[in-house]
Amino acid sequence: MLGCFLLLPCAYSEELSNFEKRELSRLLEMDWTELTNQPVSGVLGYDQEHWRNPASVAIIRSDDVFDGGHLQLVDSFRGVGGMYVTRGNAYDDFVTMRNFSGSATEKFLMLVDGREVLQPMGGTITWGSEEVPLAILEQAEIIRGPGASIWGTNAVSGVINVTTKPASATQGNSLRLALESTGTFLGEVVHGGKIGEGEYYRIWVRNQEYAESDLLSGIPARDDGYGRKIGFRFDKELGSDMEFTVAGAYSTRRFEHVLDLSSRLLFPTDANFTTFVPVSVANALALPGVPNGATYSTWPNLSGTVQPSGVPRIVNYEELPQDAGHVRARLAGVTNNELEWAVDTYAEKYKTNLGHVGHKWDRDEYNLEFRGNRPLGDRNHIAFGLGYRYMEFDVTETTTSPWRFSTLNPQTGLPSSDIPILQYNGPDSFERFSAFFQNTYEVNEDFFISFGSKFEDGDLSGTTVQPGIRASYSVNPDNLLWAAYSRAHRQASLVERYTEVSYARIWNPLAFHPTLNPTGQQWINQSFEADPSLDDEVMDAYEIGLRSSPSENFLWELSLFYYDTKDAVFSGPPVYEALDYTSIGGEISLNYSASDLWKLRGNYSYSKGKREGARQTDFPESMASLLSSIQLSDDLNFVQNLYFTGERILPSAYNELPIDDYLRLDLGMIWHAGQEWQFGFFGQDLLDPDHPEGMYTDLDVEPTRIKRRFLLTVSKNF
Amino acid sequence: METRLLVPINFLGFACRPILLLICLFFLSANSGKHLLASTHGETAQVTNLKATFFVNTLKYVRWDNRDLPSAEIPIRLLIVGDDHTNFKSRLEYLLNVSDLEISGRSIKVESLPKWPRKDAEVISSGAFMAILLDSESKKWQPGMYPDIPGVLVVGEGESYLRRGLALCLIQDNNRVRLRVNLARAKSRNIEISSSLLVLNRVEVIKK
Fold it and tell me: Which of A24, A438, A543, A694 lies at a C-alpha separation of 20 to 30 Å from A617?
C-alpha cells in the first residue's frame, strides 16, 4: 500500500497551459474578498477567465497608476493600445478610442461602480470629477470595441469600467501625496473601519490643486484652480449570500475657462461676403470700414497673438464652477438556484456653469437597474437585466459680457444686445427604459460563444435593438482566437440635438440703406440650428483577435477591427453633420517578464478613419508605448516608460492646428520603505522641454504647453 | 413627454433579423447542451483554479505545532487523493511554486494518490501532513478513516466531507467557492485555525 504513496505515477500530470498559469497567477494576486467574489462560471467576456475574453481588454490597477507616476487614472490610459489621451490644459484631459471621435465627445461608455458618467449635455466625460483615491481603486477595465449588447447605448467604440474596492478591503488609514515641479499638488486620505460583524465603512478626501500652464503662444493660460472631492462607502453582509452597499461622493471644482473671440468677430474682404478676416486683423491692416474696437467697451483687450495663425488675440475668461454629488445603493446576492442578482440605484445632481459661453445647467438623474445571471445546464450561462433612467435639466443661457453689443438677429430681423452663444431649445426631462439578454454557451472546453442583445427605448435615442455575438476558440493550449460582431448606438448629445449655436458675428461695412442694404453698418449674428433629426449613430463593428502565450513569461495579443458607422455626428461650425464614417485598424500588445526582476509591457496601434471616404486627420494613426520596470533591489524599482504619438491636426473652421508627433520618456525610481510606505520620484516628458497635445476641437481654444516636469509622490498603504 | 412602447414598432423590420438569429442560436445551444452533457466532467478548470487558490490562501491562516511537523529539511507532503481529472495537482504545484509558500520553513511537495491509504501508519511513513480528498472519494470516505495523528490536515472537496468529520471543506455553492471550517476537528488534530480567517467573507464556521 505504501507503494501507492511513493511509487505510483500521477495519472493526471499533464502540464498546465501558459494561459492557465497566468489565470492562476491572477487569482493568487487577489485578496480574499476578491477571490470569494469570483464566479465559477459567468458571462463570456465580462467575468470569466480573462484569457478566454473574446474582446480586446486591458486592466489598469492602482500599482500601474502609482508606478507610472500618474497623478490621475486617465493618465495611465496612455499605456493602453488604441487609447489616445491628451492633456488640454491643467484640468482638462481628452480621451478617444480607436480613431472614432476626433472631437471632444467621448464616444465610449464609462462607468464608475456602475454609474454612467458620460455627460449627456455635451457628450463628454469630466475626468477630474470622476477620480477616486488610488488606494480604493480596484481596477479600470478598458474594453476596446462595442459592448452594447450588455452595456447599451453609448458603448460604441468601447467601455471603461472603473470599480472601487469593497470597504472591507480598505481598513485602516491610507495617504497619498504628490507634488509636481509645475506646482500641481495632490493629496488623498482614506480611512476605513469596522462597525460590527460584517459591517465596514470608509470615508475619503481628495484634493488636487492645479498649477497654471502656459499657452502655446507663451502667455499664461489662467487654468489654475482646484478639484476637491469627498466620499464614503458602507458595506454590510446580510447573511452569507447577500450584501448591501451604500456609497456616495461630492466633488467641487473651480477654474476659469476661455473663449477666443478673435475668429468670431469677422470682417468681409469681398462685396459678396464670401471671405472674411478677423476684425482684429482688419484693424491691424487698417482696412476701410472696420469698426473701431475701442468703441466696444465690453470687448476684452488684445493680448498677444493666436497660434499658429498669428491673429491678434481677443479672449474672454469666465468662471467655470462644477459641483456634483451622487448617492448609490446596491443590494446583491445569490439564490439557492445559483441566480446571481443585483439591484442598483443611484441619484445624482450635477451643476455646472460654462461661464465662457454663458451656458449653465443643473442635471438631476435617477437610475434603477436589475441584473441577474445564472448557469443554465452545464453549458449555458445566461445574463439578463432591466433598467430605468430619468433625467431632468434646468438650463440657463446668458450673454457673456463681450457679446453684449447691438447685433442683428437674422431670425427676428431685429437688433439685439442679448444673443447668447448657446440657446438650448430641448425638453427638460428624459426617460430611458432598457432590457438585455445574453447567453454564453460552452460548445466544448475550447469553444465558447456568447450572444445577446440590448433593447432600449428612450426619449433621446428612440427605440433601439443592439445585438452582439462573440466567440473564443482555443486553437491549442497556448493560442486563442476570438471574433465578434456588434451593433451599437450612440445618442447625439443634447447640445448637438437641441442647442442653437451662435458661433460668429459679421460686420457689414456697407452704408445703411433701408431697402438696398438694410443690414449696413451693423453686426449680423451667425448661427446654426441644432438638429433634432440627428438620430443615433449606428455602428456595425467587426473584430477579430489572437491571444498567444508562447511561454509562461510572454503574452502577446493582436486585435483587428473594422467599424462601419452610419450618421456619425460631427460637431463644429458651421453645422452639425450626420455623416458615414469607417474606421479600420488594430493593436498589438505584449506582456513579457524578461526575468523575475525585469518586466515589460508594450503596445502598438494603427487606425485609419474615413469620413464619407475622406481620410480623417484628427486622430494619430500610429501610437506606441513601451513600459519597463526593473527591480534593482528588494525595495527599489526603476521604471522607464516611453510613449509615441503620431501627428494629427486639431480641426477648426478658422485656425487648424497641426500637432506634430511626439515622443514622451518618463523615468522613475520607487522605493518601498517597508510594507506600508512607498516613495516615488519621476521625471516626465524628459525628451522635450514642451509640446502641445490637444484641446477642444472647433472652439479655437489654444492648447497649453505640456512641459518637462518632475514629480515626487509618497503613499502609505492600509 | 412623448411616451413610447418598449416593444419597438419596427420589430418585424430589419432590426428583428439579428434578434431572430440570436433566438435560434439560443435554442440551438440549449438543445445541443443536453446532447453533450454526457461528455462533460461537470467541473470546469476554473472551479479547480479557484479551489486551489482558496486552499493556498487558507494555508496562510493555519498554524501547526512544530513538534508535529517533520524535521526542517524534509518537505511536507500534500496528497491529492482521488480522480484528479481537472489537474488539481498541477495547479497547486504551480501556485505553491509561485507563492513560495512554506510551512514553518518547510517546503511543500504535492503528489497524486488514487485512493486513501488504509492505515495511519502508511500516512506517517509517507511523511504526509496534508491531503485534499477529491470529490470522487466522497462516497468512500468515513469519519474513522481520519488518521489519528497530530498535525495531519485533511481537506475535502465537497460538502459531504464536512458531515464526515473533516476540518476544512472547499465547497462550490451558488456559483462561488467557499470554505467551511470545523474548528473542533482541527483542534483535535492540534491544528490552530487563525481567528482572522474565520471572519473573512464566505468562510463558514462549524463549531461541533
Answer: A543
What are the residue boundaries of the structural domains of chain A, listed by start?
34-260+317-503+528-716
| CATH among 2.40.170.20, 2.60.40.10, 3.20.20.70, 3.30.930.10 for A34-260+317-503+528-716 | 2.40.170.20
Q: Is A244 on the interface with B (CB under 8 A)?
A: no
- Evaluate whether A312 touches A279 at the Cβ level (below 8 Å): no
Question: Hey, are the CB atoms on B175 and A23 less than 8 Å from each other?
Answer: no
DSSP string, A631-642: EEETTEEEEEEE
The reply to whether B176 touches chain A by the CB within 8 Å rule is yes
List the one residue out of A496, A298, A307 whose CA is nearest residue A403: A298
**Who contacts A689 (Cβ-Cβ below 8 Å, separation ≥6)?**
A707, A708
Contacts of residue B137 in chain A, CB cutoff 8 Å?
A: none
Instruction: Give the tens place of pLDDT for each residue, A611-625.
Output: 888 888 888 999 999
pLDDT at A264: 86
Residue with more model confidence, A591 or B143: A591
CA distance A379 to chain B (A): 6
Residues A671, A640, A552: CA angle, nearest 5 degrees: 90
pLDDT at residue A550, rounded to an integer: 92
Q: Are A598 and A605 in contact (CB under 8 A)?
A: no
For every residue of A663-696, which 3-state class applies, written as one string?
Answer: EEEEEEEEEEECCCEEEEEEEECCCCCEECCCCC
Tens of pLDDT, residue by residue over A427-458, are: 999 999 999 998 988 888 889 898 999 899 98
Mean pLDDT of chain A: 87
Q: Which of residues 117-146 of B touch A (CB under 8 A)?
A: 117-119, 122, 125-126, 128
Residue to substitute from A165, A465, A489, A538, interface B, most B β-carbons within 10 A: A465
The kind and range of the H/E element at A369 are: strand A359-376
pLDDT level of residue A586 (50, 70, 90 thresholds): very high
Q: Decide: helix, strand or coil at residue B9.
A: helix
Q: Name the nearest CA neighbour of A443 among B119, B178, B25.
A: B25
Is the ipTM above a cut-off of 0.85?
no
Enter the C-alpha cell of residue A565. Answer: 458607422
